[in-house]
Amino acid sequence: MKNLGLLFGLVLAASGGGIVVTGACAIDDDIAWIAGEECTGGCRVATTDSLSCDVDSSCTPAPGCPDWDCTEDGLFAGDVDVWVDGGDVVDGEDSGVPPSDCAANGGGESLAAAQTLSLDVTEAELSCCPTSSRWFRFSVAAGVRFAVDVVPYDGSEVTFLLYAEDESLLAGAEMDAEASFAAEARTGATYYLRVRSATAAMAYYALTIRTAVD
């Protein structure tokens, strides 16, 4: 049963007896935002380069590297030019999907307008579109283990990205049935969750940021 496909946006490299985290910018290079990532429901880890250019909430196109911000600018496969934030053009290095008339329920339209989630309170009857994200925010104290519980309703598939307070990408996941992504907040901060449909159709789901984690 394919419940959850974990898509880590960090590059993990073995170094001596430990693990070194690279590829994500932070306010301070010494900050370790989360640790102990774990997911339930048949989790699989994607290739380390699957989100290597989608490092923040701006369009940073690169060859063969998907970026949610570029697709949400309304670009679609076959575009010759890709407009990045600021008006510069990169030829043929990113593509997205055609925009739709889907109207989502819940969440904000941008990181700045993210909906604040109360810990351990379920937000039900949410919906999201395939070509635009819905943004949520939640605050967790240092040392608290939290879980992102997403319950897609029958037939829906949902994917999300998790960002740190400085907008660096921490992790991502996809699920077509009830599942959780858990991690320990190494730094007390506001974290951002970016949700969208994993298919070409609107997705319906419930969302909880849970702090009672085994």
Structure description:
Helix content is 2%, strand content 42%. The chain has 214 residues and is mostly beta strands. The strands form four sheets. A seven-stranded mixed β-sheet has the order 5-1-13-12-15-10-8, with no helix packed on it. Strands 4-14-11-16-9 form a five-stranded antiparallel β-sheet, with no helix packed on it. It has a two-stranded antiparallel sheet with strand order 2-3. The longest helix is centred in the N-terminal third of the chain and has 4 residues, at 68-71. The protein is globular and about 40 Å long.
How would you briefly describe this protein structure?
The protein has 214 residues and is an all-beta fold. Helix content is 2%, strand content 42%. The strands form four sheets. A seven-stranded mixed β-sheet has the order 5-1-13-12-15-10-8, with no helix packed on it.
Task: Provide keyphrases for this structure.
42% strand; single chain; 1 helix; mainly beta; disordered N terminus
- Count of alpha/pi helices: 1
* Strand arrangement across the biggest beta sheet: 5-1-13-12-15-10-8
What is the number of E strands?
A: 16
Structure classification: mainly beta
Contiguous uncertain segments of 5+ residues = 1-28, 75-98
User: What's the assembly state of these chains?
Assistant: single chain
Helix content: under 10%
- Beta-strand content bin: 35-45%
Mean pLDDT across every amino acid position:
74
Largest sheet: number of strands, sense, barrel closure: 7 strands, mixed
How far apart the termini lie comes to: 23 Å
Global Rg: 17 Å
The shape, in one word, is globular
Order of helices and strands: EEEEEHEEEEEEEEEEE
